[in-house]
Fold these 4 entries.
Entry 1:
Amino acid sequence: MELPAYWLPRPTLALDEATQERLEALYAHAVAPGRGDWIRKKLPVPAWQLLCWLADHKGHLLHGTGDPRIACFEPRQSHDVGEFGNRRAVYAASDGIWAMFFAVIDRVNYPMSISNAAIRLELPSGQTTEPYYFFSMTDHVLSRRPWREGVVYVLPRDGFEEEGPIERGMIRVHTHHWANPRPVRPLARLRVQPGDFPFLHKIRPHNDAVLFERAKADPNGFPWMD
């Protein structure tokens, strides 16, 4: 199945045996102890690749933010178009690139609306595609380059619920979206820079009024493009 061009495929993530061994050593030192400490050791791969590896191969969830001081995540009421994301919970992603998006955009100093997703498609054959992404934000804010240094927290999956797949004809869409109604203590944390985000220059602009009107008229029409 071919998606519209505004859906961005994940860059190639091919790790040779030596690199995987270095990742395992890093994991044993910085994440497995579960103390919530900083990952300070020099990374053997770009930050997004480490985060995706932690989600794909170690089963961890990730949360991106600008706050480097969180010792325990407390459930908060979210406001989302979808039912799953519109409740009091700790939210996390099973995808490193998606989590990094929330770490490097500065919504404190630059009020904005955002529209974003990370998905995999389950085809009628049962095969599941690699991840695809969509990112957009308020047009006049995007032009101001609202970036910041941020933090991606590595979280345990225990206690989290995964958003169910969305049926689109013969295709099932899996969203990488998870929620936990209880407090969550991080296992580790990684500082990231805007330049670490592989789609920094592919974030799309949108007009808030147009986006809100389209979402109201068709709540299931994400991402409400032309």
Entry 2:
Amino acid sequence: MNHPAHDLPDLSALDFRLDGYTLADGSDEYLFHALTTNHDCLAPLATHHTDDGRHSYLLLHDTAATWDIPGSPQLLAMTLTREPDKLTFRFDAERHPLLSLAQRWLIARGAAPDAVRVPPERTGARPADALTTVLEEQLMTSGTRYDVVEHYTDDCTEYETSVLVYDTDPASAERPYRLFLETWSPDSPTYTLREGAFRNAEAAWEWMENREGPLPAPHPSVPGMLTTPRAEAARTTTRRSLQPLPALPPAKPPTPPSTGLRR
């Protein structure tokens, strides 16, 4: 059955635009309440409402995400679909470790890329350099190219987020496992994002554990890596700063399962 609007949390501060609406039949009331009850811990980064009022796309930062479960992703992406004739709505939501992955999820559900970018006037950390912007654009517009394997957000000691993905692009077949490492400082208004390429997940885990040398950078000229004018411009700016591709190490026999990116 539908749930009375007065049973919903007060979401006016987040501009959810649900006044007078009830959850549609079949919606997960418990999940919606779990996501929105502590709305004072949700900081809106980007919100977009379609002109017809039927769809909303929200990108939120959950400042309490790691309180109960260390390593949890802090970005919450949510879509709202309203039926004005019935005054009901449905929602879909998913947590993500990186801003660009949350944006990718929203784009896959109908949002225009520019609609889910963080507005320049929004306070908060910003990319420290053009390479960070390149990689964020690459992830945001990647569609189904990357499958997330594992991730971990450390906001207590090292202040970094690590995301291991599998790259389905045939051009990355020799080293299809990509490690995206976002690093920031609580005292700095900026953060950096870097990418490393590995033959398998075990090699990525070993690098995370030992941190011996820089991330093994992927080739900067993979066809189709960047698909938007904004990303292309950023690539031009950073082309000279990219390190050359290191020689590949000899193949090793499979290693036992690792604890992954958790340290």
Entry 3:
Amino acid sequence: MSWPMVRKALRDLRWTVFWYALGLALYIVLIVSFYPTLERQQEQYARLYQEFPEFLFRLFGIDPTQVSLLTTFAGYVHSQIFGFIWPVTALIFVVLSGTALVAQEIERGTADLWLSVPVPRVHLLVSKEVALLGGILVLVLTSEGALAAGAAAFGGDLTARGLVQLAVASTCFLIAFAGLATLASALASERSKAAGVVGGMGLLMYLLWVLAGLTEEARWLRFFSLFTVYDPQAAMLGELPWYKPVLQLLVGLAAAVAAHIAFARRDILA
């Protein structure tokens, strides 16, 4: 790994990370600020939720069998933030940033200059991956800080264990897609094509996860989606099964290794 290259990659990412982190933090605080209203009207909201169709719950990452939890702080935060809005927004950052690692250098015609740095190719790519991982951690920790502050200010029931497990679940989820984005970037010559492939893959996985929850006949589809092992509600309750973040982490690492192999073997000089 080349630390000068890490610092350069971090400088390139700093404003993108800043605006994504700030936007998510403000959104989290805003949504959490409405929790006291929900808490005061739990019975009315519980009756309202009973009227919603199952498909609508599934579409927004909510298990219909756990509707009763929606009036709790963990359930509320899951349904309004970490079940749909947060992962979609964070994935946009990861996909766009991850697919830029190699493909953008080729697209801009700066690949020859980048590869002229007197360090092995593996160090060049690892340096950018470390910077991307740093961006992911900033995004997650900023969101965690906003959630913790909101919970303290507005009476949310959130334990330190739940906060830590949520950070682990969110980080490993993003690492899995960061690995896939890096692999697509190492194989493609245009950032837009790489981003389209990974974005389409993410959308397909989400749809497969939704369909898997609708009928028993389609349950097998859940094995083809990373969203199956993304469980922020269980994390906030301190009940996250350890194998879920581990599986996501393994997918990300495997994809990153494949990206290094592809990057080392291909001729990408402009």
Entry 4:
Amino acid sequence: MEQIELGDIQIQVTRKNVKNVHLSVHPPEGRVTLVAPTNTRLDVARAYAITKLPWIRTQRHKLQNQAREAPREYLMRESHYLWGRRYLLNVIERDAKPCVMVDHKRITLRVRPGSTLEKRAEVMHEWHKALLHDFVPGIIEKWSKKLGVNVNRYFLQRMKTKWGSCNAQKHNIRLNTELVKKPKDLVEYVVVHELVHLLEPTHNDRFVSILSQIYPSWREARTELNELPLSAETWQRNN
């Protein structure tokens, strides 16, 4: 993969069958990528990136100073987020099948005596996935009908640098399990974003036009989502 270096900033360059150059700064650390039309010379791409340096530095500064959750230890009265709301954690040790319950004030995590942090995290993660499996299919059905697209399958997984992704050829989408911590309307925005990719795989003008037409508040949703606290785990690239 080609790379452009501008001082302390490294930009990964990918060539695709697109009409325009697309520059992106990715959470959480501010990785920069540039997608260019297939025949674009590297010096032309570099000149374009130089004109965007102030914007790149602003976006990287925002990401690197974004609030991050403290590492979760799954202890009593620890703060946990669900659908954008903060709950206090209640931990019960009992020799029974682990489970998670929620009421209007707290999340109760029931685990076996002496369970490790890793086991508690696993139980919570499986619960998060179950909640998303209850919520996501209805959103996919609603918006796939509006867009006239078909989704073969969706997947939930931990994703280190994205809220979602789309395989337009297979008509599959993937969603970050961290979304369960965000308000439901922002989860819906991510689903809509990925569904639009079934019509337009790249972030070109056509993609923006379609998204703006069916989801006019997408810019506000994107800003809100990217300003919420990031997960405490160490993020790594997954693409």
